[in-house]
Amino acid sequence: MTSPPPYGYPPPPGSYPTSGAPQQPDPWGPQQPPAWGQQPPQQQWGQPPAGQWGQQPPGQWGQQPPGQWGQQPPPYPPQRRGTNGFAIASLIFGIFGGVLLAAIFGFVALSQIKRRGQGGKGLAVAGLTLSGLWLAGFVVAGVIGAFASSGNSGTPIASTSDSADVKVQQLAPGQCLNGLEESSTIRNLPVVPCTQPHEGEVFAVFELPDGDYPGDEDVAKKAEDGCVDRLETHAPKAADDPNLEIYFLHPTRSSWRLGDQGVTCVAMSSTGKVTGSIQD
């Protein structure tokens, strides 16, 4: 008794049926039937022929072109984060003379720019520079103004502790004088401290009414009456002193035309120079 051949066992050579078509050669070459229980060689069924599918042509799929995927692109340069707002504000205030705000905003901007990497350092420095220039200008202007005010002709320059010649128009109540005399033109008088011997003391200064020059006699009468009334108010005890005389300086016709309408009232002692004030 014989058993049928195993499943899948190839028939013996020469037993293939022919149909008249030319026999195609076996692409795999002649094969030997495997023994019972053995698997066919792996090269025949489990893997493709070498050199066809098992290998990839070099430079096509197995490798990446240099400079495309195999290398990383160079890092991007750091980007600025805009211009600092305090730097802009410092420049604006520096241009228009805001010294304090320009300085504060300038220092804040420099600190933030260094920490945040922002732009605007030049603007902050310019704002600080302009604030310094403004400050220097203010100081120079103040010094010039101080010198100008000290030399101003409209400001009295004499005090009760110094001796100096003072223009008649600059005399003020409380100043003591020397060099008083009857004259039609008196421009300057020596002012001395009232603690030193002096001839007279200024006790009132007032203006005559506006208008045309009323004449020498009328001007003298109005000046005298005005001084008498003001002496009683300034020093009531001195007004009752029989040795006290009133000396007044009034405008002339020529000085009236120049706008001088002031009257200066001076209390004088008929006994000579005295010390102290008439209000003592």
3D architecture notes:
With 280 residues, the chain is α+β, with helices and mostly antiparallel strands. Among the domains are: 85-139, no CATH class; 164-269, no CATH class. Helices cover 32% and strands 12% of the residues. It has helices at 42-45, 85-95, 99-116, 121-150, 216-234, 236-239, 253-257; strands spanning 164-167, 176-177, 188-192, 200-207, 244-249, 262-269. It has a six-stranded antiparallel sheet, covered by helices on one side. Helix 3 (99-116) runs antiparallel to helix 4. The longest helix is centred in the middle third of the chain and has 30 residues, at 121-150.
Unreliable parts: 151-161
SS-derived structural category: alpha+beta
What is the β-strand count?
6
Q: Taking Cα atoms only, what radius of gyration do you get, to the nearest Å?
A: 60 Å
Strand content: 5-15%
User: What is the average per-residue confidence, as pLDDT, rounded to a whole number?
Assistant: 76
- Global morphology: rod-shaped
Question: Major sheet, described briefly?
Answer: 6 strands, antiparallel
**Strand order in the largest sheet:** 1-3-2-4-6-5
- What's the N-to-C terminus distance? 172 Å
Q: What is the count of helical runs?
A: 7
- Helix fraction, binned, reads 25-40%
The secondary-structure element order is HHHHEEEEHHEHE
Domain DUF4190: 87-141
Protein name: Septum formation-related domain-containing protein
Pfam family, one: Septum_form
Domain Septum formation-related: 152-265
